[in-house]
Amino acid sequence: MEYKAMSNNEKLSILVNSCDKYKDVWDLLFESFRINWSSCPYKIYINTETENYTYKDMPIKVIHTAGKLGLKRNWGGRLKKALKNIDTPYVLNYLDDFVLSEPIQNEEILEKIIDFMDENPEVAVVYLGSFPKWCFIIEEADNLKGFGIMPQCAAYKLSTFPAIWRRNALYRVTKDFETPWQWEMIGSYRASINYYGKFYACFENPDAEEMISKYFKFPWGGALWRGKWNPEALELAKEYGVNIDTTNRGIFEDKSEFLESSTHNVTIIDKLAHKWLLFRELIL
C-alpha cells in the first residue's frame, strides 16, 4: 500500500487554521495541547498570514499564507497554500478555537483511522465527531467500529469540525475564493455532485460517543462566540495559567442569546437537511 513503509506518526500532521487577527487565541490553544496531549507524536503546523509564532518547547511550524506582497488571500486559498507546504499524506484539520478542555485518553483511535485509510484509499475523510442521523446511510465501516459512511449527497458533507483528511482530497475539494461558511455550504453541494472519495463520521451511538468524548473535548461552542471570548474558555485559561487580554475582543456575557441563535441555526440546518434529502432522491 502507498506510504506503508512510513510509521503512522510520519503519515499525519496537525494543521491549525487561523489568521493574524486570532493570534491572541494561540497561547491558550497550544497550552491546552501541552497539558492535555503532551505525548502528541505528530507535526503541528499553524496556518496564518504573516505572523511568526513560537510557544515554549512545542515544535510548532508556521506556514505563512498571505498573498503576494502580503495581499489578502481568502480562507480557501490560504488552506490550499498551507496544504502544499505539508508533506504527510494525512492532515488533522483543526480550527484555532478548539481548545482542549480534558486530557486525551484515546489516542489509539488516530492510529486505527490511519490504518483504515491506508487500507481503503478511496476514503477522503474521517470526521472525529457525531453528525446528525440524517447525514448517514446506516452502514458501519469495516474495521472501524462506531464510524459510518455518509451518503454521496448530504448537507454539511464538508465541516470544519476536527477530521483526518487525505491531504490531496482536502486540497481538491477546496476552492480559493471560499470562506469557512462557503466551504461548508457551497463545498457540501460540490462534494455531493462530484466524487472526491468516501466520507466517514461517527454515528450517533453509545460506542462512538464514548470513544470521541474521550478524545477531543472543548468548551461548548468553542473558545470564541461571534468573535468574543466564551466565559468557559476564560475559566480554562485561568486553570491553565494563560493570561488573556479581553479588552480587544470582550466577553460574550449573554449565553442565552448565543443559545437562542444556535437553536435558530439548528432549525435552519434541519430545513436544509430535508432539502438535501429531497435533492438526493431527485439526482441519485
Automatic annotation (TrEMBL):
<protein>
    <recommendedName>
        <fullName>Glycosyl transferase family 2</fullName>
    </recommendedName>
</protein>
<dbReference type="InterPro" id="IPR029044">
    <property type="entry name" value="Nucleotide-diphossugar_trans"/>
</dbReference>
